[in-house]
Amino acid sequence: MKKVEPLNPEAFATYVPLLQAYPFKPYAHYGRRVGEEALQQLFLARVQASIKSSAHSALWVPGSDGAQGLAVWTPLAWDSQQLGVGAGRLEYLIASGDYKNQYATKEVLLRAVLKTCADQGIQHFTARVHASDLSTVHLLEQYGFITVDGILTFSLDIMDVHWPSPPAGLEIRLSRPEDIEPIKAIARSSYVCGRFHSDPCIPKTVADELHAAWLENSCLGKVADAVVVAAENSRILGYVTCKIDRQTAEYFGLTIGTIVLVATAADARGRGVARAITYGALNWFRDQGVQIVEVGTQLRNIPASRLYESCGFRLVASHLSLRKWIGVSDLQ
After folding, report:
1. 112 and 255 fall within a common domain
2. What is the mean pLDDT of residues 115-119?
3. Reduced to 3 DSSP states, what percent helix, strand and coil does the chain have, rounded to the nearest 5?
4. Taking a C-beta distance cutoff of 8 angstroms, is the pair 182, 235 a contact?
5. How many domains does the chain fold into?
6. CB–CB of 187/212 below 8 Å?
7. How far apart are CA 98 and CA 286, in angstroms?
């Protein structure tokens, strides 16, 4: 009988072999470029930081030769505020062995996680899982999680690439305080494919306002390092939010940035605005010393995938976003 215990941050060395063997580490698609050792060190640092943080909760399943599995999750204060219910995210669900053994260990962990989440007041519980992590995907489905999103991740090495100037009359620049309200207005009407809009338990108005608040926080520098906008005659036509992962420079010897959110005003689409802002964001990243830029888009957002491919990005990874309303039926 597998036993679940609270994870002890001071015994981190016990969990290291399990974590080192985990195949779905962040940035694993750069393994040939940066090396497996660098991937492991970054991953270990992130997991260790998570389990030491009071904002996270963690459990593990001990075995005769170390850890058989572990789970880490986080209550999400901002999401809870936006959704009006307790929200949380499963950060890691990892187990050793073949598919059957992984599934059994993860099942014991997931039961304990869901029970603890209910005790913590978490109802809206999400997970983003690598598309090849089949034991986790199948287990979450079995326990009432539904798929609300599929994410394709594209990557571009920007060091030796040059992009054309924006169309005449289109100004590409960083956002200003007076841009926040026009940006929020675009955000309210742009994200029909995302996980919040795809969730049958979240009203469209709530999802719209969530994205507006997300963009305001991005412009204020709370969740983004920069917001690049396209303006025409002082009117904001679109934006790109940018985030730099500074840890990658320390562990990989190269810096990776991410395009997080992109949107264009409805009446400005089809004019090359999204492409021009994307190029502007790539220029900003390069000015910050970033070597690689990633961008994710929804599996069903075909126009966005075509845009990124035409800008030189290539597909490197895919993930699924799943969600469970703990104690609440999706049909209610």
Report:
1. no
2. 95
3. 40, 30, 30
4. yes
5. 2
6. yes
7. 42
